[in-house]
């Protein structure tokens, strides 16, 4: 049986000045990387801080690792590897000292794990935290979240401020983490990174979860552009009648069209001709994401 690592039922947060999170139903299973996507002000941090017990929900309920977010805040803090969106680090401590303190709080840490992570992320752990650049502070926050191999990581914008090499290394560490059966819940506006690591994504907008799906499913919902080059002239009418094709054009023995949904008819029709080349344009998660936002652009004027 797959266990539920995060479970929310109509979890809501209303601030005095407005809604932060509309009733949210979410189920995150052990061993998955779940990407929580949304533009500025969508409600990602509100959801994460509520799950971590730093904000009190105004409605609904939630369990993290089976612990109630209202009643078991201390246990949740002890058991979840958490990276906040806004890191506050004691400026006079070095990373080494901070990791030592955290290790003691968590009942011991592996010196080998700290060395391995500081090496992989290229962090000088001997400098006072107050003197570190934004990206290096982010590395400290990430290593602090990873210490002690927690079963669940909740990361608010984990790659914020990181250079491309470290960024890729962090994604690699998250994949390794998943391989061990652990779970990652991460928020991001960086769509391409979520696409690279997440098993499923949830898209949030205006405090409301617009959709939850596997990355591949989301992509399949979008039209694909296709270009097919034939060895001989082909009749345009054959392709004009295929139900899954839009914008069909044939020029110099090349078919250009947009495929919506299943490509079964198209493949069978193509089989009657000699095809020299097929080029497809696969929608990126960015296309999917923007399509969800454009759909509802009239509801909310938030720009993305
Ligand atoms: N302490 C607060 N008091 C009142 N409103 C708040 C507070 N924190 C957040 N909000 C509001 O709740 C909504 C969701 O904000 P939240 O910070 O959760 O979004 P986000 O998706 O994390 O955005 P970003 O990507 O910019 O960090 C926004 O309208 C925001 O203005």
Report on the structure:
Helix content is 34%, strand content 30%. The chain has 304 residues and is an alpha/beta fold. It folds into 2 domains: 209 residues, P-loop containing nucleotide triphosphate hydrolases (Rossmann fold); 59 residues, Alpha-Beta Plaits (2-Layer Sandwich), CATH 3.30.70. The C terminus is likely disordered. Adenosine-5'-triphosphate binds next to strand 2 and helix 1. Adenosine-5'-triphosphate (ATP) binds next to strand 2 and helix 1.
Major beta-sheet overview: 6 strands, mixed
Q: Looking at the structure, what is the overall shape? A: elongated
**Tally of DSSP β-strands:** 14
C-alpha Rg (nearest Å): 23 Å
- Determine the number of helices (DSSP H or I, runs of at least 4 residues): 11
The SSE string, one letter per element, is: EEEHEEHEHHHEHEHEEHEHEEHEH
Instruction: Bin the helical content.
Output: 25-40%
Spatial ordering of strands, largest sheet:
6-7-8-3-9-10
Give the integer mean of the pLDDT values. 89
Instruction: Tell me what the CATH architecture of the largest domain is.
Output: 3-Layer(aba) Sandwich
Structural class comes to alpha/beta
Strand content: 25-35%
| Gap from first CA to last CA | 39 Å
What ligands are attached or bound here? adenosine-5'-triphosphate
Per CATH, the superfamily of the largest domain is: P-loop containing nucleotide triphosphate hydrolases
List low-pLDDT spans.
297-304
- CATH top level assignment of the largest domain: Alpha Beta
InterPro entries: AAA+_ATPase (IPR003593), ABC_transporter-like_ATP-bd (IPR003439), ABC_transporter-like_CS (IPR017871), ABC_transporter_ATP-binding (IPR050763), P-loop_NTPase (IPR027417)
Family: Belongs to the ABC transporter superfamily.
Keywords: ATP-binding, Nucleotide-binding, Transport
Protein name: ABC transporter ATP-binding protein
